[in-house]
Amino acid sequence: MDNKHAISVLNDLIETSKDGEKGFHECAEDVKNPQLKTLFSQRAQECAAAARELQDLVRGLGGDPETSSSVAGALHRRWVDLKSMVTGKDDEAILNECERGEDVALKAYKEAMSKELPPTARVVVEKQLQGVQRNHDQIKSLRNIARAS
């Protein structure tokens, strides 16, 4: 197995996790509901922990782990900021953007699972994929509740 390929896949997921960390952190700052603020802060911490776990895997494979978020993630956050200025930062709008971010993360993790990875990396990526799916489903449910009220 080519470690360079696995390192590249894992580094992409590190960027995705860093994007999630920053995105959830910004959502926590903007949201008014204290329960959502707590939830988003917890999700930001979970994304940071996921990134660290992936960075350890990359080091274990002899690579240099990614340490920053992606350009696409930064662009998405700027778009969210611009959109928020125009539409206002209501909780439903913030939940919509969180769900969009989780859609991107789900796609990245599913794509990574379709690649050849060492068994230890595959176990970690699968576990993190399940966490991303759980986050996505919870955010979507909260968004639906906010939309209905």
TrEMBL record:
Transmembrane segments: none annotated. Residues 6-114 form the DUF2383 domain. InterPro entries: CHP02284 (IPR011971), DUF2383 (IPR019052), Ferritin-like (IPR012347), Ferritin-like_SF (IPR009078), UCP029477 (IPR016920). Pfam families: DUF2383. NCBIfam families: PA2169 family four-helix-bundle protein. This is DUF2383 domain-containing protein.
